[in-house]
Amino acid sequence: MLCRLAALGVPQAFSRCRQGAAVRGNQVKPLKIRRPLLATATISITALLAAGCGASTMAGTTAATNPTPTPSGSPASQVPSAIRSNGTLIVAADATYAPNEFIGPDGKTVVGMDADMAKAIGQELGLKVTMVNATFDTIIPGLVSGKYDLGMSSFTDTKAREKVVNFVTYFIAGTSFYVKSSGGPPITSLGDLCGHTVAAEKGTTQQADVTAQAAKCQANGKAPVTLQVYNDQNAVNLALSSGRAQVAMADSPVAAYQVRQSHGTFKLSGPPYGTAPYGVAIPKDSGMTEPVLAAVKKVMADGTYMKILKKWGVQEGAISNPAINVGH
């Protein structure tokens, strides 16, 4: 599965899909659902390599200073020498997916559950962390090209993505539907989307799910689904709030957050579906998969993990058994 319209309120129940919007004050901003879809047929290795290198000069980056490396036998001791000597991890996130990743009050700092987890992981690895805001569907190509060291953007761990990058799981969520509170259609499953206009973020599992459902609606002689694909979750939320779309989709924590932030403009529709793990995306040849797994286990064991999840109201997505490449 792969998942990411206007900013809404406080987090609610979570499942596992990525598509949402964020609302600040009385303004509705598009949210970012974090279940990016990596179309195997669409992303070629050539295209991935073309993504470029180096993110140190990108605008909208934020650096987090972390302690020096820990003693031998620790996660930090497993970090490859090239990365250890550099001293910094460049971590990419699509910051339109609150509360998992979004831009803070200063207008430039990437904050949220994933940003805090990245900093905690970096601390265990003895590395500084620089969070970079990037469009969701460019992150995995950026990892392959060497532009980023890690991707933490509500990525669903899937077999298709595992062909390109490795994943270390750290959370679990599903996909939720949300609609306008006044006049929104009663959507409780993918089958209910026939005859409706649906907004989803580019490269997410939600986009893939709606595309597959549209074919089923047509095959069964039902009214067609009109799919609108947007570059980020904020645009998805805006499409819903403006009436261009009737239904929006996002990962369950993100959809719940957007609904709360909308102050009554949006509502969840039906239960979440498709629960699956989020994973830290890691370049296959970087030597960082095992160190990151060790760091995640450490962060969970010392209580930091649950503190972060509770801070952002997403503790229902907690797991206790992080693993490498367990996608379906």
Describe this structure as you would to a colleague.
- By secondary structure, the chain is an alpha/beta fold.
- The chain has one domain (1-313): D-Maltodextrin-Binding Protein, domain 2 (3-Layer(aba) Sandwich).
- The chain is built from ten helices and 14 strands.
- It has helices at residues 45-49, 81-86, 113-125, 136-145, 159-162, 205-219, 233-242, 252-261, 289-301, 304-311, and strands at residues 22-24, 27-29, 61-64, 88-93, 96-97, 101-103, 110-111, 128-133, 150-151, 165-180, 197-201, 226-230, 247-251, 266-283.
- It has a five-stranded mixed β-sheet, sandwiched between helices. The protein has a four-stranded mixed β-sheet with strand order 3-8-4-9, with helices on both faces.
- Strand 5 and strand 6 (101-103) form a beta hairpin.
- The protein is elongated and about 60 Å long.
- The N and C termini lie close together (8 Å).
- Residues 1-70 have low confidence and may be disordered.
